[in-house]
Amino acid sequence: MSLSPAAHIDPIGALVFVLAGFGWGKPVPVNVYEASDALVVVAPLPAVQPEDVAIDLWPGRMRITASLRSAAPREYLMHEWSYGGYEREIDLPDGWGGGAEASLANGQLAVRVLPRQADEFTCSQCFLVHHRSQLAREKNGQFVCRDCAA
Predict the structure, then answer these.
(1) What is the pLDDT of residues 31-40, one digit of tens each?
(2) Cβ atoms of 64 and 43 closer than 8 Å
(3) Average pLDDT of the chain?
(4) Cα separation of 37 and 51, whole Å?
(5) How far is Cα of residue 10 from the mean position of the Cα atoms in its chain?
(6) Mapped to the 3 state alphabet, what secondary structure does the chain carry?
(7) Burial of 3 by CB count in 10 Å (0-12 exposed, 13-18 middle, 19+ buried)?
């Protein structure tokens, strides 16, 4: 799986996040429910490996993308689906998006979107979520982290 620079995602299990980008893909259906400690997003991603997946998290939005895997060339008698190349953006309810944890098993992606903490802010320049101790300045509701202010 990969992580966009605009996200704050903590891996679970043996998943490794690598910086990468993807293009347009087929829409992915999702199920979303609220657990006691996370907003859970579940999506089917058949024939996709963890290193093919990217999760982007912004204030109020999350995007799931999976790069295209190609099958060996064949002369199909019937060809109704193809490998990978998936994409889905969803709006997140207020209070969610402080980070995320993801796992991919048996063709199913599960993303636990964590709640925003009262002592966190999103930098208006790099869009990363930071602890309040990293706040350099705030003006007109725009927060800037120490890294971006330097």
Answers:
(1) 999 999 999 9
(2) yes
(3) 79
(4) 26
(5) 11
(6) CEECCCCCECCCCCCCCECCCCCCCEECCCEEEECCCCEEEEEECCCCCHHHEEEEEECCEEEEEECCCCCCCCCCCCCCCCCCCEEEEEECCCCEEEEEEEEEECCEEEEEEEECCCCEEECCCCCCEEEHHHEEEEECCEEEEHHHHC
(7) buried
CATH for the stretch 2-116? 2.60.40.790
The pTM score is: 0.67
- Both tokens assigned to 36: 């006691």
| Structure-model confidence comparison of residues 11 and 45, the more confident one | 45
